[in-house]
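Subgroup meeting minutes
Present: P.N., E.W., G.H.
Scribe: E.W.

1. P.N. recapped why we're keeping a running log of single-chain structure predictions: easier to compare across weeks, and new members can see raw inputs and outputs side by side.
2. G.H. added today's entry (181 aa).
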Amino acid sequence: MEEKSTLKFKVSLVNGIILGLALIVFSVLLYIFDLNLKSYMNWFNYLIIVGIVVYATKTYRDNNLNGYMTYGQALGLGTLILVFGVLISNIYNYIFMTVIDPDYLSKMLVMIEEKLLEKGMSDDQIEMVLSMQRKMLTPLIASLSDFAGKSIFGFIIILITSAFLKKEGDPYQEAMQDIEE
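Output recorded in log:
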């Protein structure tokens, strides 16, 4: 049993590193092509998360669990992969906002101001919103909120995909296999 949990941890760590690196590469590409301030592009992060978590979970089920996996096993593995991947990605995000592009948050505030102007808000309302945003938009808080957002949304995705990835076997066969081992 310990061997299976060690293998599960190793598989989740390796795939979490792959997920984190994929999210970093995507972030770098957005930065290179000057698309990192386009909010709609960030939805692709979730497609990356779904793709890697589903692939890793299905591969683990088929290669290590004889093609069978409970909902809880799929949920646990997917969650571990998600946590490792998002943690790695957010360490990069913090470095990005503090070292690579320290003006990123200022650019974000300008973008927010433009959107508020488009909505027709008064100058006083805009200044009030921006003053609150300035207090909240620090690299640490931005990284933590990104971690929370990706984790929560990713976990919801994993809750759903785990239902499709589970594949229950014959309980009698599983009991007999445990006895033989």
